[in-house]
Write a structure and sequence with these properties.
- Two copies of one chain form a homodimer.
- The model of chain A has no long low-confidence stretch (mean pLDDT 94).
- In chain A, strand 3 and strand 4 form a beta hairpin.
- Chain A starts with 5 loop residues before the first strand and ends in an 11-residue tail after the last helix.
- Helices cover 27% and strands 18% of the residues of chain A.
- By secondary structure, chain A is α+β, with helices and mostly antiparallel strands.
- The first copy, chain A, has a domain of 34 residues.
- The longest helix of chain A is centred in the middle third of the chain and has 14 residues.
- In chain A, strands 2-1-3-4 form a four-stranded mixed beta sheet, with helices on one face.
- At the A-B interface, strand 2 of A face strand 2 of B.
Chain lengths: 103, 103
C-alpha cells in the first residue's frame, strides 16, 4: 500500500458508543475536518495527505486538537483560520507552525 | 505536553454523523480497542503508549486496521489474538510484526 506522507488526525469527539459530543465537537471540529479535506483536494495533495477523524485525545482543554504524523506535531485551539498556515508552512513547507503547537 | 512514544490508532468505523457502522466495527474493532488499552495498562505502558479510535481509513477490505505512529506501520486483519505479538515485538521490542503488515 502507499502510505501517506502526512497523516492529519482531527478529534471529532467520536465515542465508541456512537455518541458524538465533547469539547472538540462542540468547537466545530467536524467543520474543521471537512475544510481540511477540501483544502487538501484543492491543492492536489490527496495522494500524499490523509485526514482521519478520531475519538478524544484526552487533552480537551487544548482542543480542537489536530495531530500530524509521522512528525508527532500536536496543534491546539485550531480554527478554520489556521488551516491555510498549517497547509502552507507545515504540510507543503515542511516546518511545523510553532505558534499553534501545544507546549 | 508529553507526546506518546507510540500512538496506536484503531479504526472503529466512527462516522462524523455519529453513526458507527462499517467493516472494522463489524469485525469487533471496539473490543480490539478495549483489549489493547487493557494490555497497555497491564504492562504499565500507559504513559508512553496512547490508543485512539478513528473513523474509516479507506481500506476497509484490509480491516480491522491498526496504525502505529510515528513509525507509520499499518496492520491489517488484526484480531484479539494478534495483540500480544504486536505488544511484545513492536511496542516493547521495537520491531514491527512483518506478517501482519499491509503490503
Amino acid at each position: 500500500m502507499k502510505k501517506p506522507k502526512y497523516h492529519v488526525f482531527i478529534c471529532s469527539s467520536s465515542r465508541i458508543n456512537g455518541q458524538q459530543k465533547g469539547f472538540c465537537h462542540s468547537k466545530n471540529s467536524v467543520n474543521l475536518l471537512e475544510e481540511f479535506m477540501e483544502e487538501i483536494e484543492e491543492r492536489g495533495l490527496g495522494g500524499d495527505v490523509l485526514v482521519t477523524h478520531t475519538g478524544c485525545f484526552g487533552i480537551c482543554e487544548k482542543g480542537p486538537v489536530v495531530v500530524v504524523y509521522p512528525h508527532n506535531v500536536w496543534y491546539g485551539g485550531v480554527t478554520s483560520d489556521d488551516i491555510e498556515v498549517i497547509m502552507d508552512e507545515h504540510i507543503e513547507g515542511g516546518s511545523p507552525v510553532k505558534s499553534l503547537e501545544i507546549n
